[in-house]
Design a protein that fits this description.
196 residues, alpha+beta, 3 domains, 4-stranded antiparallel sheet, two-stranded antiparallel ribbon, 8 helices, elongated
């Protein structure tokens, strides 16, 4: 019988992250993350049948959700972990595949919340050093506009001792991004930035 890939699927409070290396048993085992932030290993059969729905916290009566599931802060935490850990995430190639990881402390949402606080309205999480992972000392809340300017895909221009993306230079000089881009295709910055 063909094995079904459960990566990225959700069963109860568990989201499947990856398959466990096969043991001698016949059951396929999966590493899952519970809504409370705890990781656990579960059998694919038990997940699909509904016999396993959490890391065990449901049985203990622990509130997995911290009352925060669905909030912008919780969704930020969940998305951050997905792009670093879930092979099926559209963003995995730009994060997990590049070695960008989430620190162990932030395996639990309550620790992330304690370190970062409530996500301010209109802001998003940003890694200060782009090639390092998500951790308390490398993350801050910034505006989406600022975040977009820090993307690796941006073209950064150095001029007069300052480095900025084309959009930022255009705003500073009062020139549209498209016009500035065309000028830079034909001229160095010292000419392109000072054309009438």
């Amino acid at each position: 019988m063909k094995k079904i890939d459960l990566t990225g699927q959700k069963f109860g409070r568990l989201t499947v992250l990856s398959e466990v290396e096969r043991n001698t048993g016949r059951h396929v085992m999966w590493i899952c993350e519970c809504e409370c932030g705890t990781r656990t290993v579960a059998s694919g059969d038990h997940l699909k049948s509904g016999n396993t729905k959490s890391c065990g916290c449901l049985m203990k009566g622990i509130n997995c959700t911290h009352g925060m599931v669905g909030t912008p802060t919780y969704e930020t935490w969940k998305s951050m972990r997905s792009r670093c850990n879930c092979l099926k995430s559209k963003s995995y190639k730009d994060y997990g595949a590049r070695g960008i990881a989430v620190c162990r402390r932030w395996d639990k949402f309550k620790n992330f919340y304690a370190d970062m606080g409530k996500r301010p309205e209109g802001l998003t999480i940003e890694r200060i050093a782009n090639n390092k992972g998500y951790s308390p000392d490398n993350c801050k809340w910034i505006s989406r506009k600022e975040n977009n300017r820090n993307k690796r895909s941006n073209i950064t221009i150095r001029y007069a001792g300052k480095s900025q993306c084309i959009t930022a230079w255009g705003e500073e000089l009062g020139i549209s991004k498209g016009t500035l881009y065309q000028r830079l295709k034909n001229h160095p910055p010292q000419i392109a930035f000072n054309m009438g």
